[in-house]
Amino acid sequence: MSTKPDGHARRKAETRVKLLDAARTVFARQGIDATRINEVTEEAGVGFGSFYNHFESKDAIVAAVMEEVARAIGAAIDAATADVDDPAEVVAIAHRVLIGQAVGDPEFGWLLLRLELSHDLATTALGPYAIRDLERGVASGRFAVADPLVALAATGGALLGVIRAVLQGRGGADPAEHHAAGVLRMLGVPADEASEVAARSLPAIEVRRST
After folding, report:
1. What's the chain's average pLDDT?
2. pTM (two decimals)
3. Which of 2, 131, 137, 157 meets the CB 3.0–4.6 Å disulfide criterion with 142?
4. Structural domains of the chain ordered from first start
5. What span, in angstroms and rounded, lies between the C-alpha atoms of 163 and 169?
């Protein structure tokens, strides 16, 4: 029996991809709260009614975009750090990858900021990845933090602040490296060592959309 999808199923899947792509673009451009469903469908080039064949509400497509962004970021960071044993280097790479992606793809950067502003992206969707890496560092003695959740909020807030500065042209020279070193210092890594770790060779990696 053939498992090849029929034409209807293929078209339905393609429409869903168009809606997600359009939602990312519109959310990044103007924010989530200011976006209406008809603006998403117009951006996607599909009929308004078709939206509800895929998502029951705007909140549903926001959740889908958040899930996709978190999955793409997690896959990119996991790939970049697969052979890295030092928890400090893992955290540095994660922060550098995200800032580098925002520099290369401003729409992606603005999307991160818009999602965080409206739906707490850093703690809900990205939190599991970040807390995992943070807890590994604490368990190994690499990091010295009194409260991992406070440390997560502090480092995540710093990351988003730097991404915003970069997108607004205020990032300065080597913002990703300088930020990563600062994050490691916040986590208890000595300053000289933090700078050395943050300056290590960075694997070539890109956050890829999964749709």
Report:
1. 87
2. 0.81
3. 137
4. 7-198 (1.10.357.10)
5. 10
